[in-house]
Amino acid sequence: MSTRWKPSTTVAAIIEQNGKFLLVEEHTHEGLRLNNPAGHLDEGESLVAGCARETLEETMHLFTPTELLGVYMSRFQRSGSNLCAPEDITYLRFAFCGTLGALQAGRSLDTGIVRTLWLSPDEIRASADRHRSPLIVQCMEDYLNGQRFPLSLIYSDATLTLPQFLSGGLAA
């Protein structure tokens, strides 16, 4: 029986205010890296809900996605070491722009996130050697070029949240 290849689905928030973009600095196997507030889609979660959740977890701010910026793919390869097995991961990223809400007092940043930063486009371009994802600059450039798509482009069927489909199997 062959194994079906599946990309790793992620969601990312592209947040701009006053000419600067919100990024997070996080611990990775490669050291401290910069990334958009982003993460993996959870089972039973819509793309929009996943983006709002990841942004809250990584920035402590509410976020309301209002537009789809784009759909992106990238590949990550890391050699194995005595601590990690070799990795070859293809990421399928759904990037959203929207409205950043209030800081949620009493929350803490997600595990591995060191801090949030507001950087200008030039600062982001100049820090490419510290980017966790090669898609940070591409998403920013698409945002700056006015690329936007309505959320109505995305449909999430009600079966996503049915109990019999959660946890990877059908209920008996």
TrEMBL record:
Its EC number is 3.6.1.-. Signal peptide: none annotated. Its cofactor is Mg(2+). Residues 4-141 form the Nudix hydrolase domain. Keywords: Hydrolase, Magnesium. It comes from the Bacteria. The keyword S-adenosyl-L-methionine does not apply. It is an enzyme of class 3 (hydrolase). Pfam families: NUDIX. InterPro entries: NUDIX_hydrolase-like_dom_sf (IPR015797), NUDIX_hydrolase_dom (IPR000086), NudJ (IPR033713). Belongs to the Nudix hydrolase family. NudJ subfamily. PANTHER family: NUDIX HYDROLASE 23, PHOSPHATASE NUDJ. Monomer. This is Phosphatase NudJ. The lineage of its organism: Bacteria, Pseudomonadati, Pseudomonadota, Betaproteobacteria, Burkholderiales. The gene is nudJ.
